[in-house]
Amino acid sequence: xxxxxxxxxPRRRTFAIIxxxxxxxxxxxxxxxxxxxxxxxxxQVRARGENRRTRSDWMKIEKERGISVSSSVMTFEHDGKMxxxxxxxxxxxFSEDTYRTLTAADAAIMxxxxxxxxxxxxxxxxxxxxxxxxxxxxxxxxxxxxxxxxLALLDEVASKLQLDPSPLYWPAGSGNRFRGMIxxxxxxxxxxxxxxxxxxxxxxxxxxxxxxxxxxxxxxxPDELAELKDTAELLEGxxxxxxxxxxxxxxxxxxxxxxxxxxxxxxxxLEAIGTFAPAPKKVKATKAGADTLxxxxxxxxxxxxxxxxxNMDPNHRDRIAMLKLTSGKFQRGMKLKVQNTxxxxxxxxPIMFFASDRELAEDAFGGDVIxxxxxxxxxxxxSLSETGTVRFAGLPNFAPEILQRVRVKDPLKAKHLKKALExxxxxxxxxxxxxxxxxxxxxxxxxxxxxxxxxxRLANEYGLDCVFEPSPYAEARWLGGDAAKVEDFxxxxxxxxxxxxxxxxxxLGKSAWEINYVAERYPDVxxxxxxxxG
Length: 534
What we know:
By secondary structure, the protein is an alpha+beta fold. It has an eight-stranded antiparallel β-sheet with strand order 29-26-28-27-31-32-30-33. It has a seven-stranded mixed β-sheet with strand order 2-3-1-4-5-11-6, sandwiched between helices. A six-stranded antiparallel β-sheet has the order 18-17-23-14-15-22.
């Protein structure tokens, strides 16, 4: 059978993982790769020394702190399907990066800590998924530790998220009493096998068997079996049975319980993604100025850049644009045009990702994510196509919550600092503003951790020792409206004006009160909290 967009796009499953920090997202990512046959050891999560690092967290600061602060992309093939896993930062300071990554996802896995339920950051990310109508599969993790009552967790999903939870499996106990889970549809029981925490990692949980055999096999005692059957019966009356249509419309979430660290429930989760998660969908766009829907099975190769990542390989000053393909059959060596600049690119070394490892991609289809090495030609939000006439909606920049001044300790390196800051701003790590008066750079971010990551990357990747200082400004707003009115306003407020990386006019306010006051006095000028990139 020939590889055509019509046969290949339906095989794709592109999904993101969202969670609160510490819910076990990175561990789950590793074990999905393990279940998919992509790695032999789960990210060396349990290895020692230099190997004690996960495959998907490759930045120095991520390894040191054990957190994810950049979005990674990992591709693997399993059971006849091609999976593109988008790992997002869990930390709330990186919500913009997460938002942009979710624009490239067709489905999401929401990871909940069984002891903590829905936490604030999970709620925020869920709202983003809701805005984009992304269907969600729920994985309740860490069942091998003391957990909240499973029914209470489902009630929380229903009340806080207004989603109908529909368990596909149901757990027997938690913590030391965790025995495994029953598949509600088939009545098969999947036993949880305990091991010493020091034992060498393996996948060995015993094969499932009908639930009535659980006592004779020594997996449960009769009381535990009776309790499991009773609660499983309660579910039938209290929760709706799983409906694929309701899930795809974003009204229902299938629920799976497990322990990512013990590789329990992970295979079932991967199976659910393959079975229920949608193949790539039609995407809204404009073509030659007219509104259209781009179908993944169309012949023309189209796509959009949702992330730019520099210096993934510290030995090469590389700059990779991550392109979500929306249609066509892409082949190495193809020429693609950037819609907003008209520039033509010969894509001779496209990359398929495996975290920081990579392979040359000979071909790719709608739904896939490929990396395009380039030197500043591609930016977040760019639309690419063979004709150069297709434009997808740009990705938003949000007004930063913290503004700081940055300077390099060695004045001779001021030029290098400018280049490095521009590079990081193009990635979307932070935002860069240049005041009209003065030579300082003002850097904007959502949270403090972004500045720490930035300082770390400036030192390690660019050899720049930088100082961040309080800025005289507290708020930034992009200016919109009639060009003459904006120019008139800028002339009267030169001391508070600046430009962003796209040379777009920005008003830098000393407080939120000042912004409101000025906005009231100039009703013809728009003070914008978001700006579309691309």
